[in-house]
Automatic annotation (TrEMBL):
Organism: Alicyclobacillus vulcanalis
PANTHER family reported in the protein's UniProt record: HYDROXYPYRUVATE ISOMERASE, XYLOSE ISOMERASE-LIKE TIM BARREL DOMAIN-CONTAINING PROTEIN
All copies of domain Xylose isomerase-like TIM barrel, residue ranges: 49-216
GO MF entries: endonuclease activity
UniProt-listed SUPFAM superfamilies: Xylose isomerase-like (SSF51658)
Protein name: AP endonuclease family 2 C terminus
Keyword annotations from UniProtKB, A to Z: Endonuclease, Hydrolase, Nuclease
Length: 222
């Protein structure tokens, strides 16, 4: 329905997530496998099932639907608990189903995963279809004790190892200038969408803080 509506109103880009299959046929719960498949041995079979029996056939069908209705770009957010969550998994799906699939690059998720969003931009190139502006701050006391894997609700700011914050409150303005510059270098010329999930500042103040930083990072054309 979303793709059909997009075609009717001549929207050529849809931003969404990849989805996450269960680990085997008959399971009802999605299963995010983000640990080595060396052990337990069942994990390798589960990952093969998710990709080859569920996700790739599903996405081939969806890409054909997009082509039929005129949707040119499907931007998948690199979110945790999704089958596509980083550059490697995005490129794996893109290789299997074609270049209509690209990334909605959200640097905040890559930050807590330990990846460098600037390197991700360079790796993905023209496969970056959309960008979220959101930051991540590590809470050093909890992170040093418990590590970066975090299951507590995002509202429990003081208990977590890391938190989503307004742009500039995790990485400084110099980092964000480098990130925007990398996007421009790669040829990206589309929206940078501010996403506010700062539970300390709230929506309005978080938006204002993010906008203030980004305005100093954008490069105006002559």
């Amino acid at each position: 329905m979303t793709f059909e509506l997009a075609g009717r109103i001549e929207v050529d880009k849809i931003v969404m997530m990849s989805g996450l299959p269960a680990a085997r046929q008959g399971d009802l719960m999605p299963n995010w496998i983000c640990y080595t498949v060396s052990w337990p041995e069942e994990l390798k079979g589960a990952l093969d099932y998710q990709w080859n029996e569920v996700a790739i056939p599903y996405w081939r069908t969806l890409v054909r639907k997009a082509e039929e209705v005129g949707v040119q770009r499907i931007a998948l957010e690199n979110f945790s608990a999704q089958l596509v969550y980083n550059s490697e998994t995005l490129l794996r799906l893109r290789s299997a189903v074609g270049p209509r699939v690209g990334m909605n690059l959200d640097p905040s998720h890559l930050m807590w995963m330990g990846a460098d969003p600037i390197c991700a931009v360079q790796e993905l190139g023209d496969a970056v279809f959309h960008v979220h502006a959101k930051d991540t701050r590590f809470e050093s006391a909890a992170a040093q004790v418990n590590g970066a894997l975090e299951t507590k609700p995002v509202e429990l700011v003081t208990a977590r190892s890391w938190n989503y914050v307004a742009v500039g409150l995790g990485r400084g303005i110099d980092w964000w200038k480098s990130f925007i510059y990398a996007l421009k270098t790669s040829g990206y010329d589309d929206f940078i969408s501010i996403e506010v999930e700062d539970f300390v500042l709230g929506q309005r103040a978080g938006l204002q803080a993010s906008l203030s930083v980004l305005e100093q990072c954008l490069f105006a054309e002559e």
